[in-house]
Amino acid sequence: MKLQKFTDIDFPNYFQLVNNEQVMEMITERSIQFGEAKKDYQELLENNSIASNFGSFKILDVISNEFIGLAKLEIKDKDSNEAEIGYMILPQYWGKGIGSAVAKELLEMAVAQTSINKLNAIIDPKNLASRKILINNGFVSKEFIDFDGLPGELLEFKI
Questions:
Q1: Which residue range is the domain that position 73 belongs to?
Q2: Tens digits of per-residue pLDDT, 94-142?
Q3: Which residues make Cβ contacts (< 8 Å) with residue 140, sequence separation at least 6?
Q4: Strand order in the sheet with 118-123
Q5: What's the structural domain count of the chain?
């Protein structure tokens, strides 16, 4: 797999992901409809412009260039010393080790940035697969939180 930043022309891939009920079940507990997805995508593109090494990336098959999902290493502003990692993968690619590979790649990208000293990940507490991936990569559970009205677990990795 390879990671490439989302651009203006990639909305169809993004929408395919966020409009999928299975993908979104443990993220928003609902699929995202077109209008909301368009708004969210504009925010994603704005965040992508903050810094070249941070933002949201397409996960692509290295050989076929087929779209697999989204990986994010997101900062809030140029002066951030912490970032959030996350990923969403289309169901046909689940159970193939892609989540583990993406988490490892994002971790390596973050460690390479001298400005970042902490990574956060927020997951649904029922998402045992993502929790296992994060724990196996050195993340530690910090707290259970209400995240926009949904249950969340905050995990942290100190660099």
A1: 2-158
A2: 999 999 999 999 999 999 988 899 999 999 999 999 999 999 999 999 9
A3: 155, 156, 157
A4: 2-5, 55-60, 67-74, 82-89, 118-123, 150-158, 140-147
A5: 1
